[in-house]
Fold this protein.
Amino acid sequence: MNLIIPMAGKGTRMRPHTLTIPKPFIPVAGKPIIERLIMELCTAFKGKSVKNIGFVVNDLDKKNLECLVKIAEGINANPKFYTQNPPSGTAHAISCAHELLSGEVIIAYADTLFKQNESIDYEFNNCIWVKNVANPSSFGVVKCNEVGVITDFVEKPQTLISNLAVIGIYCFKDGLQLSYYINKSIKEGIKNRNEYELTFVLEMMKNDGIVFCSKSVDEWLDCGNAKATLYANERFLKFTEKSNLVSSSALISNSVLIQPVFIGNEVEVTNSVIGPYVSISNFSKVKNSCISNSIIQSNSVLQNANISQSLFGNFVNFVDKSSQMYIGDYNDIFMGSLSEW
């Protein structure tokens, strides 16, 4: 089967972090969001192999391209890259990878993480993955009949129609059929806010008698903003808390690690309390600090910090005693005497 991942968006809700790196590369429990997504899909579809992964991108540097190649090759899939510029909606993004629209196809949005405790063993068919939520008015939802067939697609309903929110993963048994309806939608100029959306394509297919079922996931972890990404980090650390996620090359001195935590390669932690639910990526340094429920990316230095629910980018230098911060890449911040720096 083929996997298509639209990831050309600007990630504005995750700024300042996405000013320097695309959102799918922000680490969750030590791995980029995009890698976590692909790993979970492979686990969910145990017994089926992904032949090609189509990454629909806008502008990626060589380092990030190489990262995606490595992730794809790690599951023995062929990485393929397609450019969407400018971003013109989800249906348009999928059309950019038109050569992969044949046979069994999975469409997965790059900021969608999930957990599925049981592998999927049903006959591959048209299926939309959903999660029962308490606030359906914030999401696109589906309404199903008594046998689980989808009867309606509704975007952010203001009255209660269904609690089944669409999480951003779609399975199609016939990619050529999907391609036909996407092209039809674009040809007819069916847009929302000047974008060609997959929701309209699905509605067209349903109206023509094509059947979709729904598949509920055990847990949905949307990484659309910083707060949600921190929660995803917490959950994935919880899922793996019985594993040793502290690199053997990390230097931990006079410090306490409250599990679960992820500590990357050549990280230095001195006179600090780290955890629970903290991820510290490669080559970062933490001194005289207390950190919980936070993500610290690579090559950053934190001193005298007392933080929680915070997200630090790469190459950040930080000396402070604040309680909550979102700091992007390449920032130097200190609030104290120069002798502390």
Q: What stands out?
A: Residues 226-239 form the longest helix (14 residues). The mean pLDDT is 85. Residues 2-238 form a domain with the Spore Coat Polysaccharide Biosynthesis Protein SpsA; Chain A fold (CATH 3.90.550.10).
